[in-house]
Specification:
The protein has 2 helices and 16 strands. It is mainly beta and 246 residues long. It starts with a helix and ends in a 16-residue tail after the last strand.
Length: 246
């Protein structure tokens, strides 16, 4: 027969093992600053519920400032994730925590960082990101595929009838969206860089932010001019091209 103290010790051991198994953690290290070519970091980590992915930041003695944005690519049908960005100047510490809803409508997400760093922490010029922790709060597994640090936003709001240019070779680095306060049909009109008409894609807007998924449009990579117009019944013009000012 086991003595009471011995039995209790074995029970505590079993409980501690259970806790560790219920909250697994994946770890990696990367350079947490904006590189000269602004390349993204491959991650390719699948996170289950309650699983953590911790990135320990390294700098290789490079003088690096805190980036304005943390951008990451991930995919899931629907997951709520939490990101904790830990910042230090060697003496003082700050943690920026943000919950982000992941869905199948978009793949690129963005978290402002520099704007939330305290003035006190920025005073001596030594503040930098020490680590980044991703955690999954939902039953749905999600894939964290890439991570990038940038001083330029990846999210751009487009208005109806606005003309803008985009490079479909780098479209994965940008999110274009249209705000609408009601449901309506629109057209995404795509022209080549010389103004020649290329393609017209119908899209249904709903109340809220509507992201344009250029990745789903079957068209060759390259630079294009895009115009968003309402779907109204008008007489088709003889010339669908547009004039490009040089």
């Amino acid at each position: 027969m086991l003595k009471p103290l011995t039995l209790m010790a074995r029970v505590l051991t079993i409980l501690s093992i259970t806790i560790v198994q219920a909250q697994p953690s994946l770890n990696s290290s990367m350079l947490c600053y904006i590189s000269a070519d602004n390349t993204s970091h491959k991650v390719d980590a699948y996170l289950d519920k309650a699983e953590l992915y911790t990135i320990t930041c390294s700098y290789n003695d490079v003088t690096a400032t805190i980036p304005k944005f943390l951008q990451f690519n991930c995919s899931a049908s629907s997951s709520l994730i939490t990101i904790a960005v830990h910042i230090t100047d060697g003496e003082q510490n700050q943690t920026i925590i943000k919950d982000i809803q992941i869905n199948d409508v978009r793949e690129l997400y963005e978290l402002p960082v520099l704007a939330y760093v305290s003035d006190k922490l920025m005073q001596n010029g030594k503040a930098r990101i020490s680590s980044i922790v991703f955690s999954n709060n939902s039953d749905t597994k999600f894939l964290l595929s890439e991570l990038n640090f940038s001083n330029a936003t990846s999210t751009y709001e487009i208005k109806l009838n606005q003309i803008f240019t985009t490079d479909l070779a780098t479209i994965s680095l940008k999110n274009y969206f249209i705000k609408s306060n009601l449901d309506k049909d629109i057209f995404i009109n795509i022209y080549k860089s010389n103004g020649t008409f290329a393609q017209k894609v119908p899209m249904r807007l709903i109340d809220g932010e509507n992201f344009i998924r250029f990745d789903d449009i079957h068209i060759q990579e390259g630079k294009y001019i895009v115009v968003i117009t309402e779907n109204v019944k008008i007489k088709k013009p003889n010339n669908e091209n547009i004039t490009v000012m040089k």
